[in-house]
Amino acid sequence: MSLEKQGCGPVFFVIVASFNGQNVSLEPDHLFRRPMKKGKLLIYCLLPAWLLAHAQQMPRIELNVGMFRMDAEVAADPASRKQGLMHRRAMAQHEGMLFVFPQEGLHCMWMRNTFIPLSVAFLDAEGRVINVEEMQPQSENHHCAARPARYALETNIGWFSSKGVKPGARIAGVDKAPAPR
Predict the structure, then answer these.
(1) Domain membership of residue 123 as a residue range
(2) Of the residues 67, 113, 163, 181, which has the fewest C-beta atoms closer than 10 A?
């Protein structure tokens, strides 16, 4: 009996193929020909879900620009700021990532290993937009704040312009972000 028939979802099969390192069929019946013990089944079913759930553990906050709402992951420590949105293939239109810096400065962003085009708004300590930059995937061009910024908010490319967000606009909710480390 296959794992899928025993209640394990198809996510498992993709993970097995990538961890196994061999060319295997992703057809469930080809992976396991013998029934598994219940303990192994539980581990094999839950492990992939646990790995996916713990892969990105950044806190989330709600941000608002006028009548527009955004669900933003918060990168407030050096490791999460370094990782940013690298290696992601998609992001929902109402989502973004807020980078919280320990102090105001002329912070810059780049797109190394980032596969989706993004816009970034640099914000002062009160959440006011300083400037917005458009960034193309997999580029090491620097996109910098026009004056000292405390935050940077990355969104799908064109989000700010489509909402009419310009320098001076206030992003509400940044004050609720976790303190930087």
Answers:
(1) 60-176
(2) 67
